[in-house]
Amino acid sequence: MVTRIGNNAENILVGSSRADTIYGYDPQSTSAPTIAATAITSGLNSPLYLTIPPGDPNRLFVVEKGGLVKIHNAATGQTLATPFLDVSNQVATSGEQGLLGLAFAPDYATSRKFYVYLSNTAGDTEIREYQTLASDPSRADAASMRRITTIDYPSTTTNHRGGWIGFGPDGYLYAATGDGAVRANAQSLNQLGKILRLDVNADAFPNDAGRNYAAPADNPASIAGISGSAAGTGIFAAGLRNPWRASFDRQTGELYIGDVGEGTFEEINLGRAGANYGWSLTEGPFNSSSFPNFTNPIHSYGRASGQAVTGGYVYRGPEEAFQGQYFFSDFSTSRIWTLQPANGSRLLADYTDQTAVAGGPINSVPSLGEDASGNLYIVDIGGKIFRLDLTSGGAADPAADAGDDLRGGGGNDTIDGGGGRDTLRGENGSDRLEGGAGADRLLGGNGFDFAVYSDSPQRVVVDLSRITQSGGEAAGDRFSSIEGVFGSAFNDIIRGSNGNDAVNAGAGNDSVSGRAGNDRLSGNAGDDWINGGPGRDTMSGGSGVDTVSYAGFAAGVTVDLGRSLQRGPGALGDVLSGFENIAGSSHNDVLIGDALANLLSGGAGHDRLSGRTGNDVLRGGAGNDQMRGQAGADILEGGAGRDLFRWRSVAESRADSADLVLDFRRSAGDRFDLAQIDANTTRGGSQTFAFVGTDAFTAAGQVRYAVQGAETHVLLNVDGDLEAEGMIRLNGVFTIRAGDFML
C-alpha cells in the first residue's frame, strides 16, 4: 500500500495499482478549533430559553416571552404548530417580565411534571407546576396547574426579574431571582436577588394553596454577611443583581450563575450553599480582605466586552477538545466565549471570530441551550435557534487546502481531498472518496465506491440518484458512479438510487431511503428512520430507537420484528436488525413487534397490529384496523375508521399493567374483542363473558365498567373471586354498552 500526501497548494496525486491512501493536504499540519452556528428554525416570537426533558433525544422546548412554549423536533426540523403550553393571557410582558424559565422534573418520563417561571399579570413572579396530557406528550394539561410559590416584586419597576429554574443533581428545584431593581433586596433575607432551593415534592405550608413546597433540611441556616436565620426561607445563596441564566454541569454537578451587572462588570459565579456574591456592595472582582464574607466571581468582564451576560453551559458533548469548557455569551454583543479550567484557574477564549454562522447573523442572545447529547444551541431573541457544531483544533486544517486532482488507480483506495474544489477519481477498485470542504467532484469509476462524510461539521443531504449534493461537506459535491455513502455524525438525509446501494449513516438521527434495488442500509448510532424501498434489502437500525418504514410501498406489507429474515408480502427477503418501530404503508399491513417497547404505525389501510411483549404503542391510522397489544402495558390508538381492539387473555391487560385505549369512538364503529378470552377459568372449555354494566361482580365470567377521573375502566372477572383480574383503560368518560363488545 502507498500513502501519498499533498500540501495546502493545488496537488495532482496519482495512486498505484495497489490499495492506496491519498491526502490532498498534509494531515500532520495544525489548525485552530472552530464553531459552526447553523439556524435550525426561525419565525419564533421573542424566544428566551431552550431546554429538553431528561434524556429526550429529539425535542427542543423553546420558551417565548409572550407566554408560549413551543416544541421543535430536531430530527424532522419542524416546529409543532400547536404550542406545548399557552399562558399568554396570564403573563405580564413589559420590561424584563414574561414567561422566563422552564424545567422538567427529573422523573418527567413517569410523572409528566414540568415547571415554569413567569411574571403574572400583577407583576409578581410565580413558579408553577404542570403535567402533560396523558394522551399527548406534546401538550400541557392546563387544568393540572399547581402554584409552587409566588414571589412579590416591587410594583414600581418591571426589571431585574431573574428567570432561570432548573433541577440540581440532588433532585431539588433551583430558581434564580432578580433584585427587582431595589439594591437592598440582595443583602436581605427576602427571596429577591437570590438562588432559591426548593423541594417541590413536599409541602411545608399545607394551609396555603399558593405555596406548595418545602425548604430542604440541608439548606443553609445562614447566609454569609447577612444577619438573621435563613432557615425555612428557601434561600441557597444571595448577593445577586439579576442572575438571568444559570446551569448545572451535568458531569460535576457544579452550578454556574451568570449575573448581569449594573455599570462596571458582568459576572460568572459558582454556586455555593450560603454564599453571598456581594451585590450591591460589590460588582465584579474585589479584595477579599475588604469583604471577607463575600464570594468573588470566577470570571468577570467589563463594559467594553458586553453589557448583559448570558450564562451558558459546561460542554459535555461529543467533541473531545471542548470538554469541560464553559460556554457563555452576552445579550448586547452576542459574543461567544468559553472558560477552560487550567492549573487551578480558568482561561478565557473568544470564539466569536472562529464561528461560521449559517442563516444568521446572531443578534441579542438571551440564552444558550443543551440537548440530551450535550450539544449546544444559541437562542436569538429575533426568532431563531442556532445549533453549534464544534470542530477540534490541533489536527490538520483540510479547509485551508486548495483544489486537488487525486487519482486512485487500481486497488481499493482511500482518497481524502481536504479543502478546496477537488476532483477525486477512484478509477479501478472499490474506493472511499472523501472530498472534505469545498464543492468537489467524486468520480467512483469501476467497482463499488463510497462517498465519505464522516468528518463533516454539519449534516449532509445526499441523493445517489442526483448529480449535485447539499448540506455540510456535501454542499456542491458532484457524483458519478458512486454507489455508497458514509454519513456524518449529525442528522443526515441520505437517499439511494434504483441500483444496489450501501449506506452507513453514522451517528445522529438520520433519514435513509434506499429506493429500488437490493440495498444495505445501516442507521448506526442515533434514532434513525430507514426505508429500503422495493427489493430485498438488509437494514440495521443500530443503537438508538430506530424505525423501519414501508411508507410509499405499492401494496400492503407484513413485517415481524421478532424475526430477522422477513417472509411476508411486500417485505419478502428483507433482513432486519436493531429496529424498535415500524411504519407501515398506506395499504393493508400486518405489523408485529418483538420483546422490546415498539411503536407500530399502520398508516392508511385496514391494518393488523400486534405488539408482543414490551410496553408498546400501536397506532392504526386511517382505515378499519385491528390491534392487539399482547403482554405489557400498551397504548392503543385506532385512528380514523372502524377499529377493533383485541385481547386473548386477561394476562394481556392486567389490573396492574392495563392497556390504554386512547380514542374509543362508538360513532365510528369501534369495538372491543374479548371473545378469545376464557371468561371462567373455574370451568372446563372456553366460556364467554356477560356484560353487567356498572353493577358489582357476582360471579366469574362478568365484564363491567367504572369511571375513574378522566378515564373509563373496563373490568374483567374470570375466577369468581369478585375482583378484576383484567382491566382495560379508556381515555375519556363513556357509558359503555354491551354492543361495544365482542363477547
3D structure, described in words:
A 14-stranded mixed sheet has the order 36-39-41-43-45-48-50-52-54-56-61-60-59-58, with no helix packed on it. Strands 1-3-31-33-35-38-40-42-44-47 form a ten-stranded parallel sheet, with no helix packed on it. A hairpin with a 5-residue loop joins β23 and β24. The termini are far apart. Among the domains are: 253 residues, Neuraminidase, CATH 2.120.10.30; 102 residues, Serralysin-like metalloprotease, C-terminal (Alkaline Protease, subunit P, domain 1, 2 Solenoid); 93 residues, Serralysin-like metalloprotease, C-terminal (Alkaline Protease, subunit P, domain 1), CATH 2.150.10.10. 1% of the residues lie in helices and 36% in strands. The longest helix is centred in the N-terminal third of the chain and has 4 residues. By secondary structure, the protein is mainly beta. The protein contains one helix and 62 strands. About 1% of the residues have low confidence.
The gist of it:
It is built from 1 helix and 62 strands. It has 743 residues and is mainly beta. Pfam families: GSDH, HemolysinCabind, Peptidase_M10_C.
Strand content: 35-45%
Number of strands: 62
The second-level CATH architecture of the domain at 81-333 is 6 Propeller
- The CATH superfamily name of the domain at 81-333 is TolB, C-terminal domain
Radius of gyration: 30 Å
Share in helix: under 10%
CATH topology heading of the domain at 81-333: Neuraminidase
User: Taking strands numbered 1, 2, ... along the chain, how are they ordered across the largest sheet?
Assistant: 36-39-41-43-45-48-50-52-54-56-61-60-59-58
Number of helices: 1
N→C terminal distance? 73 Å
**Class inferred from helices and paired strands:** mainly beta
Query: What integer is the average pLDDT?
Result: 92
Domain Peptidase M10 serralysin C-terminal: 543-741
InterPro entries: 6-blade_b-propeller_TolB-like, Glc/Sorbosone_DH, Hemolysin-typ_Ca-bd_CS, Hemolysn_Ca-bd, Peptidase_M10B_C, Quinoprot_gluc/sorb_DH_b-prop, Serralysin-like_metalloprot_C
Biased composition (Gly residues): 408-421
Domain Glucose/Sorbosone dehydrogenase: 46-349
